[in-house]
Amino acid sequence: MGSDQVGVKIEPAEAESLSMSGSSGILTPVSPYGCVKPISPEQEELIHRLVYFQNEYEQPSEEDLKRITRPNLMESRKVEKIQEIYLEALKAYVDNRRRPKSGIIFAKLLSVLTELRTLGNQNNEMCYSLKFKNKKLPVFLAEIWDVGT
What we know:
Distance between the termini: 73 Å
Strand order of the largest sheet: 1-4
Oligomer: single chain
Structural class: mainly alpha
Order of helices and strands: EEEEHHHHH
Number of helices: 5
Largest sheet: 2 strands, antiparallel
Radius of gyration: 25 Å
Strand content: 5-15%
């Protein structure tokens, strides 16, 4: 195996023998028996993306923290309790309806709910900005968005 290739050891007994391999900086298990299977470029790219993803989400930005903590909330404990009840109900529903992949479905639903909340907030901001700018909305939209005409 060349000096620029990254490898993965097949035998778990030799895990303590590690060295740096190649320019990528990824640890490569080295076996005295030469049982190292090279990683494909696609696998190496996947590893880099996973490391990037992990670093990105372990350290949320200030904007993300503000969005998560909701500083204008008056009774955050009550809201958290109510949210827990809804989450447990949603989890039970998903578990009972979609047995084989319920964990994946539940995670997808949570991400969609977060996105919907963000879109709802953006919609409210747009409605209030239109209201303060005295923009004329069609009657139908004013009724849907509960914006006075």
